[in-house]
Amino acid sequence: MDLRDYLRVLSRRWRAITVLTLLGTSAGMLLTYTAVPEYRATAKLFVSLQGGTEADTSQLVQGNVFTQARVRSYAEVAASPLVTRHVVRQLKLKMSPAELSGRISAAAQPDTVLLQLTVTDTRAARAAQISNAVAERFTEVIRGLERPAYAEASPVRLSITEPAAVPTRPFSPRPAVNVALGLLAGLVLGAAFALARETLDTSVRTSKALTDALAGVGGPSVLGSIVHDPNATTRPLALRDDMHGLRAEGFRRLRTCLQFVDVDRPPKVIAVTSPLSGEGKTSVAINLAATLAETGASVCLVDTDLRRPSTARTLGLIRDAGLTTALIGRAEVGQLLQSAGSFSVLTSGAVPPNPTELLGTAQLRTVLRGLAEKFDHVVVDTAPVLPVADAAVIASEVDGYLLVVRASRTSRDQVAEALRALRHVGASVVGTVLNMASPKEDRGAHGYAYEYRPQYHATGRFARLARIVRRRPAGTGRRPGLAGIARVLRRRRSTGAAPSLPIPGGGPGARLGSPATAPADEPPRPVAVERSVQ
Predict the structure, then answer these.
(1) Alpha-carbon torsion angle 145, 147, 148, 153, nearest 10
(2) Which of 70, 92, 125, 506 has the fewest Cβ atoms within 10 angstroms?
């Protein structure tokens, strides 16, 4: 994976990253408001040597080096029991010397003889009180440690140069730091989760991923990609919903590719199936039949999914009389065909108790052959391949299978297993189609999808009506209603005939008379425009 692939993964998993980032930020804020405030008070000490008044320069330099070496060792004594035990008794603290030792920190500044004693406590005044008590006791302990056995005074002197003051604001918690750390941790966890999810996800998302998965098992080519439409359930026919939309153009590309799969023997009876249920095979079969009929060919759609038939429900047709009715000989196929507008439909009929055995009978062969002779194209909607054997039973009766793969749901292993199941019965898989693909993921590297649709310009009375509707009356912020439009039209009609205009392309005397003699409204003029959909 290169940088663009990583960015694409992060953009695809932006919801999970956002949720984890918000959780991390919320955790930082919660930690800030639930933590007990802590204060720090610091006392500074100066370490020096006591000597004679006539000390020369060399002695001063030696004393300074000695003091700097000693200061680093003094820092370890500040939190020793010699200091903490006395301070606990002196201040009558409700803590043990070991607990107090954990709140004391001593640090010697490099190349100096200054020592800092810092005490952390939940109360500001008590922190300063303990820090000053520790500093005083610390000076006594050091003088006692450095005093020779038979000497009255210690050569080392510690002076408190800056007593600890009461802190005005707590040292901890720090809201900005906690929120920033929570935000950063959430982002890191979100990115790690997105990359891990992408690595473990074996579903097919794009046409390129499907092509790579098919190449690994020697499968057919990808004939098309159908973009996801959230309104496909209520408006299943893409040509009727938006004949120039991305979904409709996807089915047209699929139709064109199917026509060039085998130029010498183009498939006439095409079975549409999928590895599992819920992958949109019925929607693809219906729209494939509609796009084939768009070319003027006669098309029949046959629903052979005798377990969960959905063609009749999707198109609003009668399901009880259909394929199973013809297979048991209760009616002729011609009597059972229903119209879906531009193509005919043979619904499934009543659901039988033995669908696999019923599809393997000679009656089905007779029905499909009769439909193939009567229609230019026969599209067969079958059951899924992996759960049941219904789709493989009719392999000898169809010219080829079109395998529907749902984006972001069907895994590579499921695609390979479905192909093996169909090849095992000698079925010919003419191609695959990626259904419910995301336009951003499956339309180029930068997530662009292009529509090339006509743009209609209204002329004649329609253009005049459009100009009236667009006009706003003075002093109002609303467009005129129907009554206002009617008044304007009556006013213009009552002013008399329109002035005569020269007819373009006519002679010098050619004039355009009253509106009554004007030619009919011109048909809309399509103007092709290109629009990017992100």
Answers:
(1) -170
(2) 92
- b/e per residue 285-314 (b: at least 16 CB within 10 A): bbbbbbbbbbeeeebbbbbbbbeebbbbeb
CA angle 483, 487, 489 (to 5 degrees): 115
Residue with tokens 């100009």: 467
Q: Go through 16-34 and write b for each residue having 16 or more CB atoms within 10 A of its CB, e for each that does not.
A: bbeebbeebbebbeeebee
Q: Is the distance from CB of 393 to CB of 421 less than 8 angstroms?
A: no
Distance separating alpha carbons of residues 14 and 33, to the nearest angstrom: 28
Name beta bridge partners: 483.
none
Instruction: Give dist(CA 137, CA 80) in Å, integer.
Output: 11
Q: Which two tokens stand for residue 171?
A: 């040292």
Measured CA to CA, the distance from residue 291 to residue 252 in angstroms comes to 6
Residue 242 CB-density burial (10 A; 0-12 exposed, 13-18 middle, 19+ buried): middle
pLDDT digits (tens, 9 = 90+) for 36-57: 899 999 999 888 876 654 445 5
CA–CA distance, 18 with 40 (Å, rounded to integer): 36
In this structure, what token pair is assigned to residue 323? 């394929």
DSSP three-state, residue 105: strand
Query: Is residue 114 packed enough to be buried (19+ CB in 10 Å), middle (13-18) or exposed (0-12)?
Result: middle
Whether residue 448 contacts residue 442, with contact meaning beta carbons closer than 8 Å, is answered with no
Positions of the chain with pLDDT under 50: 53-55, 444-449, 469-470, 472-479, 496-534
* H or E stretch covering 73: helix 57-77
Would you say the C-alpha torsion 319, 322, 324, 330 has a positive or negative sign? Answer: positive
Instruction: Give me the count of residues in the chain.
Output: 534
Determine how many CB atoms are found less than 10 A away from the CB of residue 88.
Answer: 21
For tokens 């999707």, the residue is 314
Q: What are the tens digits of pLDDT across the range 146-196?
A: 877 666 777 778 888 899 999 999 988 888 999 999 999 999 999 999 888
Residue type present at position 357: E
**DSSP of 32-54:** HHHSPPBEEEEEEEEEEE---TT
Tell me the C-alpha distance between 59 and 50, whole Å: 11
The DSSP line for 348-401 is --SPPS-HHHHHTSHHHHHHHHHHHHHSSEEEEE---TTT-SHHHHTGGGSSEE
Burial of 411 per CB tally in 10 Å (0-12, 13-18, 19+) = middle
* All residues at 6 or more sequence positions from 517 whose CB lies less than 8 Å from its CB, including other chains: none
Q: Which amino acid type is present at position 472?
A: R
Token pair recorded at residue 192:
């790690």
Output b/e per residue, 355-394; b: 16+ Cβ within 10 A: bbebbbeebbeebbeebbeebebbbbbbbbbbebebbbbb
